Amino acid sequence: MEDTAYGSPEPVLVRIDAAGEPYRDFTETDRWEVSLDGCRIGEVWRAERGCFNSRKPVVCWLKKPTALGVSFPDSAVGSGYGRTSRKACVQQLVSWHVNRDRKLTFDGWVLHCDSAREDDLSYLAIHPDLGWRWIHASCNRELKPYRGAMGGVGWQITGRRGIRTVIVHDAPSLDDGLKLLIANIGRKPDPSDAPKHPPISGLPVERHYPQPEPGLSLPGI
């Protein structure tokens, strides 16, 4: 079985045997191998679980990039498992493959570029002992007051340590901002970062403002 309706160049999906891979309380039902230009770039798989007082199961789609070797849900999972989709997972596999040369390493963390749109980047940071973190970075080439605290000139980079959002504001370069962010999210969460009963709203935010060297300016500004 093949499916090529995913854009140009078109990834090819071939149904393969389910591997029985677990994810939380979901059970795998189907799996596809994904190739792009004849190169195997990963797998996508479907899992489901029963839902109390509901006849329809909850479905979650996951992806397993060849370069990473581990499975992750569609990044829309924060909005509910029902919002995950096979198409989105395939698109993210393609994006990781296309951006594989943008991989970075900081202090034992390997940052795999998930998407790159001019001055807007997304990374999945993986550490062999500390797990993984999502990182998002955007660069303002000029002051953008309408963006509030995220509107300063420079790189605005966000990540999480437990339930705590950590933000680096106005970094003079992407490398400087990522190094500072990794220094603050790349450790085991404190008890306050991972409470047993996290609040529904008002999650903590931690902000950092690096001081650039005198005379240092952003490239291209």
Structure in words:
The N and C termini lie far apart (51 Å). The protein is built from 2 helices and 13 strands; from the N terminus they run E-E-E-E-E-E-H-E-E-E-E-E-E-H-E. The radius of gyration is 19 Å and the shape is globular. The longest helix has 13 residues. The strands form 2 sheets. A 7-stranded mixed beta sheet has the order 7-8-9-10-11-12-13, sandwiched between helices. A 6-stranded antiparallel beta sheet has the order 1-2-3-4-5-6, with helices on one face. It has 221 residues and is mainly beta.
SSE topology sketch:
Blueprint: E1 2-3, E2 12-16, E3 27-36, E4 39-49, E5 58-65, E6 72-73, H1 86-98, E7 104-106, E8 109-117, E9 120-127, E10 131-140, E11 154-161, E12 164-171, H2 174-185, E13 205-208
Parallel strand pairs: 12-13
Antiparallel strand pairs: 1-2, 2-3, 3-4, 4-5, 5-6, 7-8, 8-9, 9-10, 10-11, 11-12
Write a concise synopsis of the structure shown:
It contains 2 helices and 13 strands; from the N terminus they run ββββββαββββββαβ. It is mainly beta and 221 residues long.
Tally of contiguous helical segments: 2
Helix fraction, binned, reads: 10-25%
- What is Rg? 19 Å
Q: The biggest beta sheet, please?
A: 7 strands, mixed
Give the spatial strand order of the biggest sheet. Answer: 7-8-9-10-11-12-13
Taking pLDDT < 50 over at least 5 consecutive residues as the criterion, the unreliable ranges are 1-7
Taken in chain order, the helices and strands follow as: EEEEEEHEEEEEEHE
Instruction: Give the averaged pLDDT, no decimals.
Output: 84
Number of strands: 13
Task: Quote the distance from N terminus to C terminus.
Answer: 51 Å
Tell me, briefly, the overall form: globular
Judged by helices, strands and strand pairing, the structural class is: mainly beta
Q: How large is the share of residues in beta strands?
A: 35-45%
